[in-house]
Design brief:
alpha/beta; 11 helices; 299 residues; single chain; globular; TIM Barrel; eight-stranded parallel beta sheet
Length: 299
């Protein structure tokens, strides 16, 4: 978790008195660090990428040049066969670094259930993630985001998910990388359950990625509150906006207060999934709302 004191130390290197442009357009004086940074989750552009209108390799460029965002969260679905392709990963890395864009994390899907009831399948799923740990480390990410899918009763799933996550986190620790779990369906969308998994894993590099919109039948504010003590990233999920520019399902100001009160001041990733606005417009709307939150909580 990036705490306020750590972020202020990082900010101390900025030239005092000059305006800043970064963190999604932050423009306060250099002696005032933003209360959180803004990144862009690649899934926000999934229709554009799957539709062939944007190459995955140009994602970092789009984040920086179209939105002024200098942190990106990759999704493995867009380069699924490239985890061990050193040339491809080197190209990804260079493109981002040339633009001053930070590779924050990779979101991993489709590699099996880390909490599978079958121990052999669970072990295989853990091993399937190894290549993504290595790829993320190479790119300069701090984490891979994984899913805690499992089977069985509440307690059985808690134990099985914790077992798989513990094994993967031990591997991640060897590479100086975090393994973080998103509330992403099933019991992982129960904040109390996911917090229980974290406590059972009990490793410093295993944490959460609270997503504002993935709690479904569970109170989203309660869920974020329960999982923020373990957060190493945050996902600002958005769908629709009202005339005032506020997200219609999530009170961003209430949610960001929960995030900041937990001592988190790292990247908050834009993840637009709406349909009323096109993806570029949806990202801009979410960015503007997060910038309003920056202004409010910096005051």
């Amino acid at each position: 978790m990036t705490h306020r004191r750590d972020f202020l130390k990082q900010a101390a290197g900025w030239t005092a008195g000059l305006s800043l442009v970064g963190a999604g357009g932050w423009t306060h004086a250099a002696d005032k660090a933003p209360p959180f940074k803004i990144s862009l989750a690649e899934w926000s552009l999934h229709r554009t990428i799957f539709g062939g209108k944007l190459d995955h390799l140009d994602f970092a460029k789009t984040a920086k040049e179209s939105f002024g965002i200098d942190g990106v969260e990759y999704v493995n679905q867009f380069f699924k066969d490239k985890a061990k392709d050193e040339k491809y990963l080197a190209d990804m890395k260079k493109r981002g670094e040339d633009l001053g864009v930070k590779s924050v994390l990779i979101m991993i899907d489709g590699e099996g259930k880390l909490g599978d009831a079958d121990e052999k399948k669970r072990a295989q799923s853990v091993e399937n993630h190894y290549k993504w740990v290595e790829a993320a480390k190479f790119l300069g990410c701090h984490s891979i985001r994984v899913n805690a899918a499992s089977d069985g009763s509440y307690e059985e799933q808690l134990g099985r998910a914790a077992d798989g996550l513990h094994r993967l986190s031990e591997f991640g620790a060897k590479h100086g990388l975090n393994v973080i779990v998103e509330n992403h369906g099933g019991l992982s969308s129960n904040g109390q359950w996911l917090a229980g998994v974290m406590k059972k894993v009990n490793l410093p590099n295993c944490g959460t990625l609270p997503d504002f919109g993935n709690f479904h039948d569970y109170d989203r504010y309660k869920g974020v509150t329960e999982t923020m003590p373990f957060a190493k990233a945050v996902s600002a999920k958005s769908h629709d906006f009202d005339a005032a520019g506020n997200e219609t399902k999530t009170d961003y100001f209430k949610m960001m207060k929960i995030v900041l009160d937990a001592g988190y001041h790292g990247y908050v990733g834009i993840e637009y999934e709406g349909g009323k606005l096109d993806e570029m417009a949806g990202i801009r709307a979410t960015l503007k709302l997060l910038q309003r939150c920056q202004e409010k909580f910096a005051a």
